[in-house]
User: Which sequence fits this backbone?
């Protein structure tokens, strides 16, 4: 096939594993569903074990496949999770802005990721459910400070109304190896890029 002038599109498709972590009912599955299908299910159904989906993203100069691993938040599934973190490129740690405990518990998820991957991973702290702003228990400043302290990316989202969900995944894709310069150039309000380590295990 003749070259279209965009050489990177003829290269092998790079795959990156994203693992979603956080307490039960913070909206991990809803974020993935909004990104994949642009839909939201008002009926809550807990994830049992681990679910997997993948989606190709077309960026300005390359195409990447994001492999999305949705983990259960219940304590009884905790023993399964380290093996999924171990070869991840990105850990997305989600909390509910209307549930202070879910925010406090992000620290244990972050520690789990660091324990398995050290600094060889991008960690994104996501404050979900901004549609419940009138019930907010965690301020944006608190989320930003936690991200700054731990060298994380940060964003607030609403899977229910779609707020910042596409931006979340686009920023992740741009922060992956080879895109970090563009990600920093295009950094917008609501995101913190500090110490986004870029040594990855591909598979």
Assistant:
């Amino acid at each position: 096939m003749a070259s279209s002038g965009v050489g990177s599109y003829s290269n092998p498709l790079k795959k990156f594993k994203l693992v979603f972590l956080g307490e039960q009912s913070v909206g991990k599955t809803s974020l993935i569903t909004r990104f994949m299908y642009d839909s939201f299910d008002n009926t809550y159904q807990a994830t049992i074990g681990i679910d997997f989906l993948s989606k190709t993203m077309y960026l300005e100069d390359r195409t990447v496949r994001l492999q999305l691993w949705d983990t259960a938040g219940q304590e009884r599934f905790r023993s399964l999770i380290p093996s999924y973190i171990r070869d991840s490129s990105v850990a997305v740690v989600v909390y509910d802005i209307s549930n202070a405990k879910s925010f406090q518990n992000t620290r244990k998820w972050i520690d789990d990721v660091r324990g398995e991957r050290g600094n060889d991973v991008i960690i994104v702290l996501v404050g979900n459910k901004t549609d419940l702003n009138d019930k907010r228990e965690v301020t944006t400043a608190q989320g930003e400070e936690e991200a700054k302290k731990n060298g994380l990316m940060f964003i607030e989202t609403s899977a229910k109304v779609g707020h910042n969900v596409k931006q979340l995944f686009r920023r992740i894709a741009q922060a992956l190896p080879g895109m970090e310069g563009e990600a920093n150039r295009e950094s917008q309000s609501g995101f913190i890029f500090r110490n986004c380590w870029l040594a990855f295990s591909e598979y």
Notes: Residues 7-185 form a domain with the Rossmann fold fold (CATH 3.40.50.300). The chain has one domain: 7-185. The first strand starts at residue 14 and ends at 22. Confidence is low (pLDDT under 50) at residues 1-9, 179-203.
